[in-house]
Please model this.
Amino acid sequence: MRILALLTVAVALAGCTAAPEQSPVNSPAPPPTTSVTRLDFPPRPRAVPLDGVEPCELLSPDQLLALSLDNPPSAYVEPSFGNAKACTIRSTTSGNVARIALVLASGADVWLSDNAQVEYTVGSIEGFAAITVRTPDVDNICNVEIDVAEGQFLDVMFRDGGNSTAVQQDHLCLGAQRVAEAAMAGLLQKR
Model:
């Protein structure tokens, strides 16, 4: 739902913006296209459907300890991802919060659209495409989206939980990457 709302706002704003007039003689060449498409994702080693998975059961007690996520996991439903099953876990040590959501309403390639209005890089975790997402002007959060099956992705969010000194976004992205690697390892053990 959040993604759909962002896309709707972007389209509405684009329609309200007038482009400056340019003469055909001196108009600049269009910039080269460097956007990533679904075809640019590395092929999945296999499909790993998220149906029937419980997000709070993906991380083992040892993984939670290694990630310094020491509060009990809390399950809920995330309406911004089509009522995805989600789990949030807080660290009393670092003050940061991790969230794992199992998105069944769209594929990870939704983040690659210009309408998503995010900055991203594409890498891989366990051979699956993993998109690190940063939202402009939102420095206290970082997401990693893993393409696990057609029309499904594993969302891992890592955010500053209100620390007295703000955590740098690069550090949050490293935290999101670590949690995403652990969650994907847990998912592959279950599937």
The mean pLDDT is 82. The first helix runs from residue 2 to 16.
